[in-house]
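User: Sequence in, structure out. Go.
Assistant: Echoing your sequence, followed by the structure tokens.
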Amino acid sequence: MITGDTILVLLELLMCALLWFLAGFAEKNINSKWRICYAIPVILCLVMITVTGFEITMLGAYIGSVILLCGFFRDNKLIRRISCIVGAVSVLVSFAVASNSSDYRNVDYATEFKTAFKKIERFYILDEHKGIDLDSLYEKYLPRFEEATRNHSEDENIVAWLEFTAEFNDGHVYYAPKGDYEEVMTRIYDKILGNDYGLAVMTLSDGTAVAVNVDPYLSETGIAEGTVITSWNGKSPVENGEEMMKYFGFADKDNEEFYKSLYGAGAGGDTVTVTYLDEAGNEQTAELSKIGSYYSDRLKTALEIINGGIDAGHLKWTDINENTAALRIKMMMHDSDSSNSNSFDRLKSQLYAKLEELKAAGVENIILDMRDNSGGSGAMVQAVVQIFSPVGEHYYSNDGVWDNKKQCYKTDPETGKFLIGKRNTYAGEGVWDGEIVILINANSVSAADHTIQILSGFDNITVMGFTESNGSSQGVGGIYLESGMLSISGSLMLYENGEVFIDSGVDRESGNDVEIRVPFDCEAVDSLFVRGEDYLVNKAVEYFNTK
């Protein structure tokens, strides 16, 4: 039993004992104030239900507190003592039932899914844009949630939500279970990603799959960083990764292709048969034993090496060389004051001062490192783009037109396109007119997508990365469930022509592109995984040197 229910049972039993003795004492010391004591269990019970939630198998405990109210209405020793006995028995029966019931505090995941799905149908704005057949998804996934309910399995419920939300290919559609998110999701990823065989596998830009993040013990097999992997248990690394994509919904298909094989290197049992090319280019075969039950840790490390930004705090500057400085932007948020007031004037004044200092020091180039930027405030987006945009009015986006009566966004009955609402602009301040490179990856999402979209249109600003940004930019809404929270795209943003702002459609090509797509090649693998360098920063410096 959970702590709250256990506390309620113990307190009610204690109250039954105390009220039993109070019944005799009150008969000898007549005073109307004793009646109030018999109402305390009901008040206590209501407080605990508010904290822990109603639970049907605890009904006996709830009824027990109501039975004790007899002493509040009848000032009679016998009635009060009988109510104490009956109340205590009711509480004990409830405790026994709850302790031995497989349905105790069990979430009805299927009912949750049905409730959430109705809200998705009503509020999710991109189903037609993305070509999502919601009815088919409902029929496909309802049995999964019904099974999770029958099995009383939180993990089955979470995995079902992972697969369901991945179908949307929308970075704003995800499920967050209650509790410690990182701890819970680590447990889930440990289950679904497979075993650790001592290496991850990454596909290079030319389509070749190579070993990365290789454990030293594999040196005896001849597998090292950059070794070409030709098959994995009889399949190509990309095929193994393809099977894992049902859990991970990349908004942009190019980004999915980039990472796909990395997710599949946990496939196998106690051993896995790997074929690879040795240093002479001859194909060899090795049977690798698992060195751990969880591939998720090796995958996480590989992703951190590939995706990781400059090792600096949020909104902190780093000197790259005498001509170049870098600003790390991990999210589009500043501090609690700016979040509460939606004003980023203090941030802007700090950036003004720093940029003037850099100019005085002869710095000509800036790197805006927005890799793994998790998004945030639209107001901060405007604050940043104002500073780095040329002087004058610039276009941001258009709102959709909301229909208050139907509680949805209006569409043109003839074209089916959303109707265009308010045109949003901002005033550029031209504080910096030197060269700028924005470093991005597939985790640069939401408000980061906005920033990249707007700034990429200026001549002195270049977007660079191995991949495009995430490609998910609509406003976010939350559906709150007993077991967690479901995030969806619920607030519409459009281009001037009425097309959906940035988010990919049926073709899974987002409106954000990368101007310089840095090849992920053998040189990149050596730089990242052998020498431990920030390869993209090096490429940005090379680019500046050509200007």
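User: And one key feature?
Assistant: The chain has three domains: 3-100, 200-305, 309-546.
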